[in-house]
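Continuing from the previous page of notes. For each protein in this section, the sequence appears first, followed by its structure tokens. Read the first protein now.
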Amino acid sequence: MAKTLDKVDVVTVGIGWTGGIVAAECAKAGLKVRGLERGKNRGTQDYLMIHDEYRYAIRYDLMQDLSKETITFRNHRKMRALPMRQMGSFLLGENLGGAGTHWNGMSYRFLPYDFQIKSMTEERYGKNKLPSDYLLTDWGITYDELEPYFDKYEKTAGISGEDNNPFWGKRSSDFPTPPMKKTPILKMFESATKKLGYHPYMLPSANISEAYENPDGQKIAPCQYCGFCERFGCEYGAKSSPEITVVPTALNTGNFEPVFHANVVEVLKSGNKVTGVRYFDTQTGEEFIQPADVVVLTSYVLNNAKLLMVSKIGEQYDPDTGRGTLGKNYCYQLGPGTTGFFEDQMNVFMGAGALGMSIDDFNGDSFDHSDVDFIHGASITLGQTGVRPIQTNPVPPDVPAWGAEFKKASIYNYTRTLSVHGQGATMPHKENYMTLDPNYRDAYGVPLLQMTYNFTEQDRNLHQFITERTAEIMKEMGAKTVVPGSPITDYDIVPYQSTHNTGGTTMGASPDDSVVNNYLQHWDADNLFVVGAGNFQHNSGYNPTATVGALAYRAAEGIIKYSKNGGSLV
């Protein structure tokens, strides 16, 4: 029998960026917050021996245990969905900090176009730019309305950058810290893109360029450019993550209590209110009920959607009828790019997760799409993230993939290879969605989440277009051999591509086309908030974290208002 605990003002399900931001803001406002994290406690002190590529980058030491919970995947409804048995296309973080611990730190704000994509696309190109199978929807909020929350997130995280990109939205203040070092490799990209008439800028980075103290008094160290960011925690405390920013801020109030090894399996609901959550202690097997005045789902995209589904909160999306919003508009991202092989050696092994330069000349609606068969686009970047020898063995296409010749070419090209890549936006399609799997269950007897997803014609056209642009840049950079990426066909759950999953718990102006309102308050239960990249109505040409952070600050503001006044916030 489940043991019922004392009631709290706010309970968060997960303690990463979103859970940490909500906890810090609500605790500072005097609310009693309990954070349930199914993983363990951890922090900078645990990463002192982090430079182990095999343990962390290959064996995924910081990631979710798929033997206990995974997802099932299929490309289309006629295909049988099967469980993902090891990490492939995306990497789900676990333990305190979640994916905010092992992220690279690229911290772009989404473009104004992203938030009003349906209305802006129709205004410029008409209602028939894309077929009706694409489910474009505005987000119910504009960039200008969200800008103050972007600003707050960036000051909390100490984001390093420069405000010289002509395509992104206006800023209320400059970046808190200067951009990272512009290395010789980045200068090559800068020179080539400027010669082509483009507008390069230093990538907004959560690998901090200089020592920084944020408005809450948390100190972040300067980056050491060691090259161990993505898939790793930071041993220097120099990569902004929840453990060194918002979580200690929440703890310092005395109003926040984290609970570890707490796997939430159900949100409890009575009438039009939620009453708390039910969870298991993953070490002892004990079952608990945590009552709360406000429940906030702050776990990863996929887990937030799954919790709503198993709790029967909201109407599941049906691709046959188009009814329902839960699980709808799942989107991923495209990875077009080009590899270049050079004559001269470069220090590619040095770098940082968000050390790079980008252009947005082909992102969002920065260029006229009248004569192309797609909308949106991609940021195009050269990142100097610090390539590591186990995972990176580049050889030209005419070299065998094994044997003595491969070994020789791999050693030679390791320091002579660069990649220019795009992050391509994907649009929601009626056949791409999430639901519960009817056949498979996790270690706690809960149905697995089932993902139905494939690339569409829009994706293939955009991918080819951006691939051609990256090849032009690489040629201008002077590579002796230029190797554009192959065209995409069907999406595959392997190999790794990005952890930029979005949708399924979308935000909007109406319950007819969204799960939550623009405070991320659930339409069917006004004391339930759902926070994360699942709120995105589509994916963008950027990494999602800064937009997730901004939305979390807005949600926290809404939770505090609700706690005082109750009722719907819109």
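Done with the first. The second protein uses the same format. Note its length before scrolling.
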Amino acid sequence: MLSKLQIKNYALIDALDIEFDRKLNIITGETGAGKSIIMGALGLILGNRAESKHFFDESSKCIIEGHFEIAQYDLSDLFNQLDLDYEDTTIIRRELHADGKSRAFVNDTPVTLQTLKTLGERLIDIHSQHATLQINTESFQLLVLDTVAQQQALLNECKTTYLSYKKSIASLQALEEELAKSRAEYDFNQFVFNELEQANLQADEQETLETEQNQLENAEEIKRHFHGAANLMQSEEVNVLDGLKSVLSFVQNGTKYLPSAEALQERLQSSLIELKDIAAELEQVADGVTMDEERLNIVNDRLSVLYSLQKKHRVDKIQDLLQLQEELEQKLQASDSQEEQIEVLKATIEKLRSNLTALADQITANRTQVKQTIEQEVQDVLSKVGMPNAQLQIELKKKEDFKSTGQDEVVFLFSANKGQTLQPIHKVASGGELSRVMLAIKSLVAKSSSLPTIIFDEIDTGISGEVALRVGEIMEQLAKHMQVISITHLPQIASQGTAHFKVYKEDLGEKTKSNIVLLKKEERVLEIAQMLSGANPEATAIKHAEEMLK
């Protein structure tokens, strides 16, 4: 429950410190006194965005802090999911700055607004006049059925399965489109791949063939040059080797008389041996080069194939052709594997659909089981609040298509009077009737959801007199199970409260500020008397107020 609410520097509020009762809290005050400001501040710590930047003092920050007693509501798992420290007395704080910056904390841990929303939904249900319109939406109507049926765990499983189902269907569609595209290209890719594979490409083949081609085409030139070199060294009348032998002879004869020249003699001897080897190898090279027209034709044909493939695929190297061949092979393999993946996905989708059908069937069965209970209990409450002939009928239809909430469509049909045809509630219920129907539903849902606190923000539109008294009694009964805070203009409702707060405005110099005070017994009598008859109540109004409070 909300045990304390502190508001500093927000709109017309300088500083408020409100301590709420565990049961039925009443908040009254003139229009414009600041009741909606208090609700706005409370909304900020429940994750609402700060719509206004109005501060009581622009030079200071705004702080809203709520203290929640949650020991008996089994929220520790939620705190773990949100990665928050659990405390039996949990403090939620929101800070707003004049520059628009905002910070939020749960037990002094910084959190996002989404975290505040998630936590706030488990702490407080704020029901205002505008929230009455929720009853017209299918999502709210399903929520009522599911809350009373207490099947949140089943719904969570259904939602998870549904999301997996939809994701798998999307994946299947994408894969089938990809396969169709692959099949359109498959024959062409296969043809090109076969052509490249049959070419039996080798990484360094082109360079080797081009070198061989050059040698075969110039065989005569190669032979002529190498034979010429060999002849000059050893076959001509005046050749290199004979001349070098003569040089060596002279040096040998001179060395007999000059031993220090022996080193030159040895070098000449070595050079002569090396040149004899070179001359021999020149002959071998020249003799080894042959004119092979057949081989040249083979090389030219092979190079023609390589050049043709390169030109066809607009590349310059065999490595590029080999890379293209590898990519085509992967595409062809992918086409084959896509068919296998599609079959696996189809099996997965069928299994998910089967699971989803079973979950949806159980959800429908649970909703059907509580439908009559909701109809009867709402009708009983409506009878107490001045609508004895009102009927609520819940029409549940199962559709073929799945949703995250199952397969059901729901319509709340309503009739306020005898002989009136049941129709969708938004078509036939007035504002006052809708408020009472919503009160009846909220009372029922609150008992089933074990929510700590419910706030009724001026839902008394369109009701008065005895009906208002019955509405107050229902709130009082509801307060036996949970904390109730009711903002009201009706004395019949105000008289039912365990604690009664009054919101009022006061002028301080050039500023107006809102305040709130917990009324004592005598003050409460006067407040209710004023609500009955005006600012200056007569004795009869005061006596009536005293009787109402008894």
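What the second structure shows: The first strand starts at residue 2 and ends at 10. Residues 179-336 form one domain. We return to this in next week's lecture.
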